[in-house]
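Discussion board: Methods & Data

I've been asked by a reviewer to show the raw model output for two of the constructs in my manuscript, not just the figures. I'm not sure how much to include, so I'm pasting the format here to get opinions. Each protein appears as its amino acid sequence followed by a line of discrete structure tokens. Is this the kind of thing reviewers expect to see in a supplement, or should I convert it first? Here is construct A:
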Amino acid sequence: MLKVIEEEKTTSLLERMDDAGCVVNFVVLSLEESVKVNESIHRQALVRLHEKLMKDSWDWHNSLIKNPEYKSSGDPAISWELDKAVATILTQEEIHNLILTDGYVRGPLALYGYFREPPYGTEFKGGELKAKELFHEWRQILGLEEQDDIVVINWVKGFKKEWLDNDDAIPGREPWSDYFDEGLEWWGVWCLTIWNPTRRTFSALIASTSD
């Protein structure tokens, strides 16, 4: 139903983002023509994202344990209680905020701000211009475009940060994966699914980190 696509482009882009210091991970998928899009398909995109996270985690773990001096911290599994995740569909104004780069701030939906300023900062060869170019390239592959029929769902709205008072926290809204533990200390967390009906692509992105 959902098939991973753009793997070479995704790998290249992730490597360049990682080299610059970005902390976001993502997957891009295509949807069969006959399938009707609903929330369950967005959740399936999150399942595919989890599969990628687990592969990345195990690859990293298996690389580390090749060093005899490395002391294993155990199973690198990432919990994923997707049945507890609450979907919040973004408005067109909120989608517009996601793609802004000029005068960005680290607000609730200022995606570029978090792309640009994780806890340890970023360093783009070419400075701000290169940062914006890479962000634009990322948006393009995600299918995150400002068009009327795009659907973006936020899966982490209302999570409470541990060390900060965040007014947008929703009582009783609990994290559904331990992947978010570090980001909820103070920096923040991201988890979006994006449906682009023109391309018939889904993408899912996620971020969570601390200092």
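Construct B, same format:
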Amino acid sequence: MSVAEVSVAGHFGELLQGRLGASGPLALITLPCPALLVRATAEGTAASHRPRQFTLHQPGARALTRSEAARFLRALDLPLRGRFTLRLDMPPGGGAGASTAARVALARAAGEYDPARIAHACRITEGASDPLMLPRPERLLWASREGRILAALPPLPRLQVLGGFFGPGQRTDPQDLDFPDISDLVARWPDACAKGAAAVAALASLSAARTLAQRGPNPDPTAALAARHGALGWAIAHTGAARALLFAPGKVPAGARADLRRAGFSRITTFLIGGN
């Protein structure tokens, strides 16, 4: 029997997200998250084996319906056969990239690895996507509603992220462009990466604060938690429930995790990003 197994990392919201000018595209810089994965397996997909009817099994959280998965595979010109299983570490609608990561994992389990083809299929079937099909997605300015790279960016400085999910999930509406202008933050991003973690965290905090002021929810405890625990800054899923405190590596206080839990955060996790 033909069996393929792959995993795709999600993200933890965005370091920046907003419009590039009042009528410009919606752009983002993703906050990569190696701690949250979508795992996909496929059985009976090879042409040399007896074809199996296309089925989709999702124990636990469900990122895609069967019809959404079938439409995505058709967009990639892949045959609808085999038994696919998707397992998610993150909640759908949490702002951790579950929908895009599930599609990328499904494509790779079915044998398609070309990032450009996967990005195109995500755009036409999802309407809004994260750049999780691309290597080093945090080094890209990504037009999420158009599925294209706007600019290449420098590497991130090393950061330790402590975060969780606060409040209800919210699935992305591809027609929603009601975000603040971040063209000034994008212009400052390369210099911030050169200056180091504190400068990057400061810009991420500005982007998060602008979105919360314009879109809510309010009140949101993330900024206060960051200040209380001496974080360099904070970041959010600009659509969704993911919230992150940004620290220099090894500087997360011992009581910070428990404090996030008391504030109502769930599924608390920590991981390192950048520096390579």
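Answer (T.O., handling editor elsewhere):
This is acceptable in a supplement if you add a one-line summary per construct. For B, something like: Residues 197-215 form the longest helix (19 residues).
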